[in-house]
Structures are given as structure tokens and as C-alpha cells.
Amino acid sequence: MTVIRAIVTDxxxxxxxxxxxxxxLFPYARHRLPxxxxxxxxxxxxxxxxxxxAREAGIIEAARQEIVEMLLRWTDEDRKSTALKxxxxxxxxxxxxxxxxxxxxxxxxxxxxxxWRGEGLHLYVYSSGSVPAQRLFFRYSEAGDLTPMxxxxxxxxxxxxxxxxxxxxxxxxxxxxxxHVLFLSDVVEExxxxxxxxxxTGWLLRPPLDVPAQPRHPAYTxxxxxxx
Length: 228
Ligand SMILES: CSCCC(=O)C(=O)COP(=O)(O)O
Ligand SMILES: [Mg+2]
Hints:
Blueprint: E1 6-9, H1 18-40, H2 44-56, H3 64-77, H4 82-97, H5 109-118, E2 122-126, H6 131-139, E3 150-154, H7 164-174, E4 181-185, H8 188-196, E5 200-204, E6 219-220
Parallel strand pairs: 1-2, 1-4, 2-3, 4-5, 5-6
Helix pairs in contact: 1-3, 1-4, 2-4, 4-6, 7-8
Bound molecules: the ligand CSCCC(=O)C(=O)COP(=O)(O)O and magnesium ion.
Magnesium ion (MG) binds near residues 10, 14 and 185.
């Protein structure tokens, strides 16, 4: 019998709509990125991620303006760059704190997270968004502060979401065996990687997406259909 003790969830397309991330968060950060780098670019934590972005692009020396243009291009390409995600997270903080938006959640998500916690399951997040951005997302969610629901957060500093080794690191970090962990995502390649690492998987196909007749992973249209 399968005993699930921990659930690791993706955010975009899983707990929350792709449109909130693409149409609200990304444009907010894109619009403010040049001014943010201008005013905060000398702070060590910002400098660190600017250097990381340059390193990722294989650039040895670049003017700050070139890095900014590259980051804007990466935003448009939805590149899952750890450096870009770290910088976006810093910019989103202002928007959350000013009440410009709250993080979207599908309607059943908050109640289901509460129910799973009540059943003693340990909950974690694994998203391409940086860990600070994930904390902000759930702190300023439409359903209020959900950060007490989560025991930990993982981002691409743990590894790319399409590589089995990332999931091996996560189960090690949370002190579970993979067969006791369920990973939820909307992206089949992420689920393939998690399964290759021995985790159980749940594929979120939110309406109006169609559920294939023979899905590659157990498929759900809502968290309410999942019975861990
Ligand atoms: C933490 S909110 C922003 C999410 C984000 O930047 C992103 O790329 C979403 O990726 P996910 O891995 O959650 O699908
Ligand atoms: Mg996703």
C-alpha cells in the first residue's frame, strides 16, 4: 500500500494560474527591472545575481546595460534562470507589500492544503521561482498567509526541474524516502523526472485543458480529486 507522508507542489499551473504569473508578475518585474538595477545594482546581493546572470550567459565582462537587456530578453523567453528568478523575486516584494496584487490560487487549494496538514502530511514547494519569491507568493495569497502550511521550499538552486537528481536532493533534504513523497505539477517533463527518482506523481490539468484518455501520470483537474 502507498503511504504518502509528504507532498511537494509546483506553483505555476498547479496551485495557481499560469496567467497570474505571465500576465501580472512577469510584466510587473519587467517594467521595473531597469530602474531596480539602477538603484540597487551596487548592493552585494543584487551584484551577486548580476554576476551569476553574466556567468550563465558565458559573458566575462559586460556593461550593466547589456546585462539588463539580456535579463529583459530572458523574461520574454520565460527562461528559468536562477539569477533572473532571484532578481524578479526582489522586485515582486514591493508590489506585494504595496497591495498591487495578491497571488492567485485555484479555489480549492487553500482548504486542501489545510486538510492535508490536518492529516499530518508535510508540505513543500518546488518552483522555478526563487525561494524568497515563493514565500512572498504564499504569504500574500488570495487566501491569506499560507506560509505556515509549508515545511520547506526548493527552487532551481536545488537543480533544474526536469532532472531526476533534483528530486533525489529534495527527498534527501526533507528526510523522506521517495516512495513516500508525492510531487504535483502541470508539466509532464517535471513529473517524468520526479518519477525517475522514485517519487509518486500527480499531473494537474486545470480546465479548459483536456485530460488524455491514457495520461502518462495520474491526472487531476483539481486538488480535491487527489487522495494521497
Ligand atoms: C514563485 S512565483 C513565480 C513563479 C515563476 O517565476 C515561475 O517561473 C513559475 O514556475 P513553476 O516552476 O512554479 O511552474
Ligand atoms: Mg508549473
